Amino acid sequence: MLGTSPEGKGGVAAVVCVLQREGFLDRHAVRYVVTHAEVQAMGKLALAFNALRQLLAVRLTGVKPLVHAHCSSRASFYRKSVLLALARAMGCKTIFHLHGGEFRQFTMDEVGPVGRWWIRHTLEKSSAVIGLSPSWAEFLQAFAPRAAVLVVANSVKLASLPPVLPEEDGRLLFLGRVEKKKGVFELIEAVAVLSAQFPHLRLVLGGEGALAEARARAAELGIADRIELLGWIDPVEKAAEMERASIFVLPSYHEGLPMAMLEAMAARKAVVVTAVGGIPEAVQDGVNGLLVEPESVASLAGALQRLLADRPLRLRLAAAGRATVEQRFDTELMLEKLATLYARLDGAAQ
């Protein structure tokens, strides 16, 4: 299995941590090979060569390993696509597991004819292609008609213990990279719009990125005292922040199926998210969360105002969100689908 460092940040690292924690890698004799980490360019190149070295070492023993790559867009795609092509040249079966929320934009807008040919070739030559939601699978199948596409949604482990920390009224939580395409600056503006109506309103941003710009924008809007910039937080800190929050907000421009959103739903938090990527297939507006338009301060502020002013609505959406995760996104469902796929590609029961 090829992917980013489990100690890293982002959705792929979170998925890999689930696979490790649940013993999936051990049960299926999976060797996890890090192909990306938060290092300099030469370090990333060294990781890619190390992945190739490990693949060659296994292949020289006579074994043809199944190669499962967690992929995103741009550099991530090119690194993994080359490794997958080399694996196939050695006679290995391969799985292309797409996570990147900007893959459609990357494929249709950012690359030329040769790049699109390589993307289509990579998908169609893979033994299986995994999309995180039906809409992503539909896009992949339409773009690469001969690809063997299936859906394996991201998942989260449901907490069995009650919260330790009390929920704080008016505390909004964002988890992700602090940058424009995550909707952070619209979120800051929405908080400014609502600040007079809700004196206890507070926005907590957990993630690295444009922290100085976010702080400066909050100061310009006169709400510097309403913003907490935590930087990157570890799983223990994230769990604590999730317990303290009353609403989880992720107003991204693009997404796959965000792990942070599923974790918030599992933690019984009302979610306000944009109707992009696979999100609308997990969140129904007014049923188990609120959907807003990307890049719209008015839409975002309106949804937050509804939840901040209506605690019963907030609790109802939170309970429905938890039920959605229990029914459709529990970890056991993902593990079962992956195990079935491995068994099929290996040609033997696991």
Strand order of the largest sheet: 9-8-7-10-11-12
The residue-averaged pLDDT reads 95
How far apart are the first and last residues' alpha carbons, in Å? Answer: 17 Å
**Topology order in helix (H) and strand (E) letters:** EHHEHEHEHHEHEEHEHEHEHEEHHH
Radius of gyration, in Å, reads 21 Å
Percentage of residues in helical conformation: 40-55%
List the total number of helices: 14
- Could you say which structural class the secondary elements and strand pairing correspond to? alpha/beta
Main beta sheet, described?
A: 6 strands, parallel
Low-confidence stretches: none
Number of strands: 12
The percent range for strand residues is 5-15%
Structure, described:
The protein is α/β, with parallel strands linked by helices and 350 residues long. The protein contains 14 helices and 12 strands. It has helices spanning 11-21, 24-27, 41-59, 75-89, 103-110, 113-125, 134-143, 184-194, 211-220, 235-244, 259-266, 297-309, 311-329, 331-346, and strands spanning 2-4, 33-36, 67-71, 94-98, 128-131, 149-151, 171-175, 202-206, 227-231, 247-250, 270-274, 290-292. It has a 6-stranded parallel sheet, with helices on both faces. It has a 4-stranded parallel sheet with strand order 3-4-5-6. Strands 1-2 form a two-stranded parallel ribbon. The model has no long low-confidence stretch (mean pLDDT 95).
